[in-house]
Amino acid sequence: MSGQGDPPEEPPRRRMVRAPTRGDAAGRGMGQRLKTADHRTLSSQQWLTRQLHDPFVVKAKAEGWRSRAAFKLTEIDDRFHLIRRGARVIDLGCAPGGWLQVAVKRGASAVVGVDLLPVGLVPGADIIEGDFTADGMEAELLARLGGAPDLVLSDMAPNTVGHRQTDHLRIAALIEQAAAFAADALKPGGAFVTKAFQGGELAEVLARLKAEYAQVKQVKPKASRAESSEVYLVALGRRG
Questions:
Q1: How far apart are CA 14 and CA 18, in angstroms?
Q2: CA-only gyration radius of the chain, Å
Q3: Which residues are catalytic?
Q4: 105: helix, coil or strand?
């Protein structure tokens, strides 16, 4: 998903959550990319070129993270100390599993993720293939988690169509759905982290979160590409 005219972080895809990282592309030589360039769209070629030159992609591959997005969450957690030892965590749109890995590694006692796409096993995490907005899914997630979460995460992004107004409506709707889930599920004092994009819908999302949480912060992690309008909203202290 992209903001106002910004290039997408990833190639176009037909779904409502972020696509699995193509981390293995970082290990391929540029010559190999050029051989297959004729079979790729321009946006796919641009995405692959960024991957080949992205130090966070290389670092993620070297350290065993499922995606470069793991570094976004670690930076946010280093700043706000969200994943406390023994915490319960739900990850909405968890593919390909990088944020699940971070939550487990940082000491969460129960971690449950949900995604429309199949996600490979992440030791220490329970993963559901499905739509987090489906009837009964919230109850299923809470049952597997063993109680209300201390933290709800969302790194989801909808597929864009290239029409600014339509794309912003999709962005806003998805963020609202994640925020509504967090508001219903979180224990008092809990936290919510969601991807957002600078633009017209951001003010409305911020207003809602400020009414529901004690503090709301905007963060642009170093692993978030500079040309993207992507930001993360960190909502702290869910009001009772």
A1: 10
A2: 17
A3: 195
A4: helix
Phi, psi of 65 (to 5 degrees): -80, 150
Environment class of residue 78 by beta-carbon count within 10 Å: exposed (0-12), middle (13-18) or buried (19+)? exposed
Domain 69-238 in CATH: superfamily? Vaccinia Virus protein VP39 (3.40.50.150)
DSSP secondary structure string, 7-26? Answer: PPSS---SSSSPPPP-GGGG
User: 180 is written with which tokens?
Assistant: 């509504």
In the chain, beta strands by DSSP E: 88-92, 110-115, 126-129, 151-154, 191-197, 213-219, 230-238
CA dist 45 and 34 (Å) reads 9
Residue 121's identity, in one-letter code, is L
Residues of the chain with CATH 3.40.50.150: 69-238
How many Cα atoms sit within 13 Å of 84 on the Cβ side? 7
d(CA 119, CA 138) in angstroms, rounded, equals 19
Whole-angstrom distance, CA of residue 236 vs CA of residue 182: 12
**Phi/psi zone of residue 189: left (φ > 0), alpha (ψ -120 to 50 degrees), beta?**
left
One digit per residue, the tens of pLDDT, for the chain of length 240 reads 334 334 344 443 334 444 333 333 333 333 344 344 456 676 666 555 565 556 657 666 766 677 889 999 999 999 999 999 999 999 999 999 999 999 999 999 999 999 999 999 999 999 999 999 999 999 999 999 999 999 999 999 877 667 777 777 888 889 999 999 999 999 999 999 999 988 767 888 899 999 999 999 999 999 887 778 889 999 999 998
Please tell me the pTM assigned to this model. Answer: 0.77
Question: Do residues 126 and 65 touch, judged by C-beta distance below 8 A?
Answer: no
